[in-house]
Amino acid sequence: MTGGGTGGHVVPLLALLEYAQGQSDLPPLQLYYLATGRGMEAELAAQVSFTRIHSGKLRRYFSWSNLLSPLAIVLGMVESWSALRRIQPQVVFSTGGYVSVPVVCAAKVLGIPVILHEQTTQFGLANRLMAPLATKVLVSWQSTLEQYPHLQAKWVGNPVRFISSTQTMAQAKHTLGLRVDLPLVFVGGGAQGSHVINQTVLEKLPQWLEQTQMVISTGPNADFTALQAAAHKLPASLQTRILVEEFVGQQLATVYAAADLFVGRSGAGTVSELIVLQKPSLLVPLLKSAGGEQQHNAQLLVVAGGAVVIPQHDLNPTHLLATVSTLLRDMSKLQRMSTQLKVLQKPDASAAIWAEIVVFA
User: Fold this and answer.
1) Which residues of the chain have pLDDT under 70?
2) What is the C-alpha to C-alpha distance for residues 64 and 176, in angstroms, rounded to an integer?
3) pLDDT at res. 104
4) What is the value of pTM for the model shown?
5) Domains defined along the chain, listed by start
6) Closest of 175, 222, 168 to residue 199, by C-alpha
7) Which residues pair with 261 in a beta bridge?
8) Is 332 in contact with 155 (CB distance < 8 Å)?
9) CA distance 152 to 134
10) Is 261 in contact with 324 (CB distance < 8 Å)?
């Protein structure tokens, strides 16, 4: 396995591992992971046989680091070639990201089949470059098939980790220590958080909490401390309406089950979770996402009727709060948004991908 650089490339691998661990009918497989081991890659690296490799980031803008990237890619290819010669895998499964480039290239040189999976509606740069080298191309969205007919790709969906809860919304709110008679907004900016969204919420935090409860996943940054400090300064009656976390991990399923509305970024992983759980959302796509992928991801939900979008250049504290307030005043609309997300669902993505992998095992 390879893929990484961002959570969107790593989470599908974690989801596939989680699925495999819960299946007794899968053939026994020895799993290896080739990546840098940085960021979220470390979580997967700790669970399977791991080989650290170098890789250069494929930047679309000028940076002095671009001068070193080719050298890092070449070094990564040598390391990948050596690792694959030692491991002798039947197949390489790649979720893309710049770390996958040397691994896929080395696999091609060694004649090892490559299965490539794309998480976004439009191919990221690494996957676009590596697709011609792949034995099989899998995509997460039906619309992607129409954009790349020459790849003869297969629509399998995007694997997500086990995030479903057996609890009702009221039960989940109670589990979190929140009131069951007030709506709950889950604010999240992806694995790294969103400083822009965090600060926009922070500027009118008391006004938010006068009408709703909140769980805020700030990401590992200074916003966590700032929002915690702001929450402690609130009147006692409002302090019980907010939970501030750097990252919602073990309780993610409960938070999603409790939330009436999600507010945040539109990375591939987040969008896939919203679809699986049929959770209505207000999305603020990241401006500088690769190839505008977050804008495309968000538009997919908007067209289905399951989300509304505020472009980041239109984002301000008053506008965001007013839009959320309007949505929360119309619970029947939120229910319709939830129902309309069903048309985008592709169930059993993990099972479909494993079925493709075991063909080579």
Assistant:
1) 57-68, 289-291
2) 47
3) 97
4) 0.88
5) 7-158+346-358 (3.40.50.2000), 169-344 (3.40.50.2000)
6) 222
7) 185
8) no
9) 11
10) yes
